[in-house]
Amino acid sequence: MNPPSVHLSASSFHSLYRPSTCTRRVYLLAHETPAGEPSQFELLMRELGERHEKEHLSRFAGVRNLAEGSLSDRAERTRDAVRNGAPVIYQGVLRAELPGSRDVVTGIPDFMILDGDSHRIRDCKLSRSVREDSHPEIFRQLQTYGWLFEKTFNRLPAALEAYLGNRILETIPYRGPTRAEADLVKLRNLLLLPDEPWEPVGWSKCGGCPFQHRCWSRAADDHDVSVVYGLDQETARALREMGINTYDELLQNMGVEKLAGLTRARGRAAQRVGAAAPRIIAQARALATGGVMRLGSLALPSGPAVMLDLEGMPPQNDEIDKVYLWGMRVYGENGLRGPYQAAIAGFEEHGDREAWLRFLDNAAKVLLEQGPIPFIHWADYEKAKIGSYIERFGDQNGVAARVIELCFDLLKATRDSLALPVPSYGLKIIERLSGYKRTMQDYGGDWSIAQYLRASQSADTAARSRIMAEIARYNEEDLEAMASVLRWARGLAGTA
């Protein structure tokens, strides 16, 4: 009996590799499993991607637009357009059968541009790289386009290109049919799996996946070993090969010494779990008991402190690691708090620098009034960004250097001393243990970035102001959450 035929698309590689490599996601999409609603950030990135593509389209004249119609009709019109030497083909369709099967592979490159006796194949991408190690999905998608072109027209494409988010055109070499077909066969085999494959979950790995809630809730209910914080994907796979599927079985069958000696794959080499073992066992025990496990003394600053939190945008399009809000608030030991201070970047040419200078003014006033009190932040983002802005715009009166000296990473202090019954040490998770509850329904780093991008794209001054006020409100709640966690952690330290 012949295996069933499947429909493969060049864009299907995105389901395997984005937001992270996951074989289960390919299976779930192939079986039309209901997914979660896309976030505002995802919707906005789609909108920006479409805008980026349309901007590039506007640069060409005499374009043969093949975006409308059925796939088979568009594929026929694409073949005619290429054979007739159309100068620019937009949204053409390439189709071919995978050798040795009845599987049809489809690719829809954004552009095919005449170059000599062949065509350049070009796709628009918001990313800034098409390297195989950083964006395997884009790399394989372009390779598939090259294979489809070669199969259809019996000649090589003139080039494979990506028009990137920073408006740079990058070319990648076509590696030929053997490599492309091997990647397509791998994808096909995943689509045809008879049962849903096991895949280790991971808080960072699963973030942004449309099936995150589905997979995490099941893994948590099953006590899946991969939900243990600090236990990496390779260790989870190695444990399953030993028949250890849950963190309960991990605690029953492996102590610290045995786990430390476990060898798992690390790239092309093998490596022992080693020094990570005590933390993993403590985290598993915290999950199993729902309690807090001590790893060491909890050293926290006493007295008043400044909570510091920044809202920033990663490199995307024309932006360069821009911090668009510098938020801080002083909190006293008795629970009293000072006014919320936010230095917000304007949308004009020098808005970034002006926000930085306002932040320095705010910090200088705090130091003058309070003396050298700690500036408490969560993770190393704030400290790193202050350092980069010193290089970018300078340090007025050495204020930023002083702030860096006074920075205290509350995440590191918490994580180094406590094993908590949580899947992640993100502030949005840890704040729940402290009893903090937010008032906003929509919030988060991606939400903040999406809102800022919407404001930057709007010409409506009033709308911009409303959006930035919502971002400031979210930032203020981040400060409140950190203060709540600090009070909670101080309570734990006091009971040591």
Structure overview:
By secondary structure, this protein is an alpha/beta fold. The chain has three domains: 185 residues, Lambda Exonuclease, Chain A (Alpha-Beta Complex), CATH 3.90.320; 70 residues, Orthogonal Bundle (DNA polymerase, domain 1); 190 residues, Nucleotidyltransferase, domain 5, CATH 3.30.420. The protein is built from 19 helices and 18 strands. The strands form five sheets. Strands 2-3-6-7-8-9 form a six-stranded mixed β-sheet. A five-stranded mixed β-sheet has the order 15-14-13-16-17, with helices on both faces. Strand 6 and strand 7 form a beta hairpin.
Summary tags:
16% strand, 3 domains, single chain, 18 strands, Lambda Exonuclease, Chain A, globular, alpha/beta, Nucleotidyltransferase, domain 5, five-stranded mixed sheet, 496 residues, DNA polymerase, domain 1
Provide the gyration radius in Å.
26 Å
Task: Give the overall pLDDT as a whole number.
Answer: 93
Uncertain stretches of 5 or more adjacent residues? none
**For the report, how would you describe the main beta sheet?**
6 strands, mixed
Domain count:
3
Strand order of the largest sheet: 2-3-6-7-8-9
Distance between the terminal alpha carbons, to the nearest Å? 68 Å
Q: In percent, how helical is the residue content? A: 40-55%
- How much beta, percentage-wise? 15-25%
Name the CATH class of the largest domain.
Answer: Alpha Beta
Assigned CATH architecture of the largest domain: 2-Layer Sandwich
**C-alpha geometry:** globular
Structural class: alpha/beta
Enter the CATH topology name of the largest domain. Answer: Nucleotidyltransferase, domain 5
Task: Give the number of helices.
Answer: 19
Number of strands: 18
